[in-house]
Amino acid sequence: MRALTANRLSDGEVVFWKAGQWVERFADAELFGADAQAAAEAAEGHAKAQPTVVVEPYLIDLIESEGLWAPLSYRERIRALGPTNHPAHGKQAEGGAVIDALRHAHGAARSTGRVDLIKRK
Fold first, then answer.
1. pLDDT tens readout for residues 69-95
2. Over 70: is that where the pLDDT of 111 sits?
3. How far apart are CA 95 and CA 32, in angstroms?
4. What is the C-alpha to C-alpha distance for residues 17 and 22, in angstroms, rounded to an integer?
5. What distances in angstroms separate CA 42 from CA 9, 47, 65, one per listed residue?
């Protein structure tokens, strides 16, 4: 599974792709399975054509955690949770099953999407 993420240009907020628009919560993100690779790449292409809306859109790898999906890389889990300075700040303050899955997920240091982005620069 994969999801498309970026930062909103107007305020720097981490956003996720869902059916042609950007949403702020990872729980609302559109997930692309292995059978939807073409759709994921099309969404990434569409997002990259929005340079006045988002910065550096890229696909991230996901893993299953507690029956839900979470970003594979630690960096992406931090981005999905919000700031790490205190559990009562950011998106993590909302709580719920998705937040718990994000907090307990384990994975690699980087997802392939971010590695590909770094290689392109």
1. 988 888 888 888 877 666 676 676 776
2. no
3. 24
4. 5
5. 21, 9, 27
**Cβ of 64: how many Cβ atoms within 10 Å?**
11
Digit-coded pLDDT (tens) for 34-81:
899 999 999 999 999 988 999 999 999 998 887 889 888 888 888 888
- HSE, side-chain direction, 13 A CA sphere, residue 28: 13
Sheet holding 14-18, edge to edge: 21-23, 14-18, 2-8, 54-65, 68-71
What predicted TM-score, i.e. pTM, was given to this entire model? 0.76
In sequence order, what E strands does the chain have?
A: 2-8, 14-18, 21-23, 54-65, 68-71
